Amino acid sequence: MKGKLIVVLGGGESGVGSAILAQKQGFDVFLSDSGSIGEVYRETLNAYGIEFEENGHTEERVLRADEIVKSPGIPDTAPLMWKVRDASIHVISEIEFAGRYTDAKMICITGSNGKTTTTSLIYHILQSAGLNVGLAGNIGKSFARQVAEEHYDYYVLELSSFQLEGVYDFRADIAVLLNITPDHLDRYDHDMQHYVDAKMRIIRNQRMQDAFIYWIDDPVVNREIEKLRPGVTLYPFGEQKMKNTIAYTENGKLIIQTKEREFTMELELLALEGLHNVYNSLASGIVAKLMDISDEQLRTSLSDFKGVPHRLEKVATIRGVQYINDSKATNVNSCWYALQSMRAKTVLILGGTDKGNDYSEIEDLVRSKARALIFLGKDNSKLHAFFDGKIPLIREAGSMKEAVDTAYQLAEKGDAVLLSPCCASFDLFKNYEDRGDQFKECVRRL
Predict the structure, then answer these.
(1) What is the CATH architecture of 5-92?
(2) Continuous segment of H or E residues that includes residue 189
């Protein structure tokens, strides 16, 4: 491999992991980041003796690459990427690169909503059953770094559309597609089909002996299956029993039908609440049965899973008002599921970086459930344009503290205060975790 140059673009978790793996495989490696690299990643690169640059790209060096591993946050429309294409340099994702160097079984999950929860739940089920399994992708330590430094028999990978864009030969043994609703349309020229095409790459290269698990009630997914006719074994799930549905709910029970037997579990025993989490549990249960997890072990794991931070996370109850952190709701459909699960009148905190959102999807739920709206963002004009006149109480907030203090004043005993922003976090926060952490800190200080 010596003499073949791998250039890694991006110095975050994905990029640094890719650089470490490339070095281990004997490539010449150079990492380049247009911004500053975090201290922990800079120290890691130095410890491995990997050459890197930050705060700008040396184009001449980048364009000498035999292959480029691009971090998912870099869009194909970035000026440097145009030059890379003109130079006919092959560009891949970390997922594609790391997949070349492991023979582990791949369980891959994508969807506009629910993928982090479902990925974490599947990992919990498999790990609790004693399998040698790694958790990676859009969650935790990078896939590439784990391939370089550890050995697992199975990987559970959360895959975003950004990561799937750079997948060519990678193959999922089990693919899970939860749903496809509008998201990241600013990345895809505001063309929904471009976003859909990226998501559907999860079934690329799958064979008949592989499994494709999907939500049968999603019209977009069904249309794509009809169009693509993938040569893979289909495992549809839905809320109700339908033709070919192998997992569904009936009479207050979750039911998964396998060739050998039928698995059942009372819905009230599931650790996760809400209809969307029933879907997540159904998908996870199908994976578990395909992996020969026992009924007893699956039932235990579905009932003791702790959930993920920033997703309908109950923070505190203060003066009879429950505060809920759903900062991970970075699109409208995710907020819809959060509102749908609310049983009390709700003060809803919305706003951030709009990604081409259509708020009509949550209008009926907002009208019926929201006592007040608080817009938290640098530019709330689109929110005002849609909601003004529809909800009597609307306030602005320029910081999380102001948003939480305002919610505290507006909420009545028995209400809920829900942070479910519908938007990306980058206008006021580092990321959705920072936004959620600030919310929790402000609530605890009330």
Answers:
(1) 3-Layer(aba) Sandwich (3.40)
(2) none
Q: Which fold would CATH assign to domain 96-304?
A: UDP-N-acetylmuramoyl-L-alanine:D-glutamate ligase (3.40.1190)
pTM score of the predicted model: 0.86
Triad 114, 257, 284: Cα angle to 5°? 20
Please provide residue 72's backbone torsions phi and psi, each rounded to the nearest 5 degrees.
-65, -25
DSSP 7-58: EEE--SHHHHHHHHHHHHTT-EEEEE-SSPPPHHHHHHHHHHT-EEE-SS--
Ordered by start, the domain boundaries in the chain are 5-92, 96-304, 313-444
Query: Could you read off the pLDDT of 95-154 as tens digits, one per residue?
Result: 999 999 999 999 999 998 899 999 999 999 999 999 999 999 999 899 999 999 999 999
Identify which of 373, 340, 316, 349 has the alpha carbon closest to the alpha carbon of residue 429: 349
**Measured distance CA(141)–CA(204) in Å, rounded:** 24
pLDDT at 3: 75
Reference 108, options 175, 167, 168; nearest CA is: 175
Q: Give the separation between CA 269 and CA 341, rounded to whole angstroms.
A: 17
Residue with tokens 């790391």: 98
Asked if 178 contacts 129 with a C-beta cutoff of 8 angstroms, the reply is no
Let me know: does 219 contact 196? Beta carbons within 8 Å: no
Q: Interior CA angle at 141 toward 135 and 145, to 5°?
A: 100
The shares of helix, strand and coil residues in the chain, as percent rounded to the nearest 5, are: 35, 20, 40
Q: How far, in Å, CA of 362 to CA of 348, rounded?
A: 12
Residue 323 token pair: 């505060």
C-alpha 175/C-alpha 347 separation (Å) is 37
d(C-alpha 302, C-alpha 124), whole Å: 9
Euclidean distance between CA atoms 318 and 315, whole angstroms: 10
Is CATH 3.20.20.70 the classification given to domain 313-444? no
Per-residue pLDDT at 437 exceeds 60: yes
